[in-house]
Amino acid sequence: IITGELAERARLINELIRPDALISIHINAAPWPKGERRKLVDSDHAHVLIFGCMSAWELAQSRQQGELIRKMINGSGDIEVLLGKSLGHALAKGTGLVASKYSGDNAVLLDRQHPYLWARNLMLLRLAECPVVMLEPYIANSVTSYPRIQEALRARNFHEPLPENDILLEYTSAVVAGILDAYSSQ
């Protein structure tokens, strides 16, 4: 189901919307602590993902080879790095969150000077024919972010004044700052 949904999103992006670039906005989540389902985790961080980090097995797949070649030819990489660095910096500054850390071989940190920017071979990053940057700040089930998310949603749902530290406005402001920074440097 998820694979089909992502493929359909990519089709809509490629055939109907056809943006110059795509910023995929998410709030991350963490696994529940072992044996303590539904207990909030004591972790909160942010990262920005762009296309890359293909395994030998993935590179052996003709379909993924074609998607890699298309990304290389259309110049997505340079724009993804530009946007990714600016958005990572803006998320760090705007949210105060630390950079995520990956272990394993399915992600690569592109530049130690930009600890928020990682490359991964995720389906949406690969299938969208335009430059794509995926944002994943906050941990939805964390001790710090969960109450802020609930407060922001409740205020909107009941038409109440927005909280002073509204997490959704904080996120939005960081995204706007990152985009403005990326394109003002051009």
Q: How is this fold's topology laid out?
A:
Blueprint: H1 2-17, E1 22-25, E2 45-51, H2 56-59, H3 62-73, H4 76-95, E3 98-99, E4 108-109, E5 117-120, H5 123-127, E6 132-137, H6 145-157, H7 167-184
Parallel strand pairs: 1-6, 2-3, 2-5
Antiparallel strand pairs: 2-6, 4-5
Summarize the structure.
The protein has 186 residues and is α/β, with parallel strands linked by helices. It has seven helices and six strands; from the N terminus they run αββαααβββαβαα.
User: What is the CATH T-level topology?
Assistant: Aminopeptidase
Mean pLDDT: 95
Tally of helical segments: 7
- Which homologous superfamily in CATH is the superfamily? Zn-dependent exopeptidases
Structural class: alpha/beta
Enumerate the spans where pLDDT stays under 50 for 5 or more consecutive residues.
none
* Overall number of domains: 1
Helix content: 40-55%
CA-based gyration radius: 17 Å
Kindly estimate the percentage of residues that lie in beta strands according to DSSP: 5-15%
Along the chain, the helix and strand elements come as HEEHHHEEEHEHH
CATH architecture: 3-Layer(aba) Sandwich
Described by strand count, sense and barrel closure, the largest sheet is: 6 strands, mixed
Termini separation (Å)?
Answer: 39 Å
Shape: globular
Quickly name the level 1 CATH class: Alpha Beta
Tally of DSSP β-strands: 6
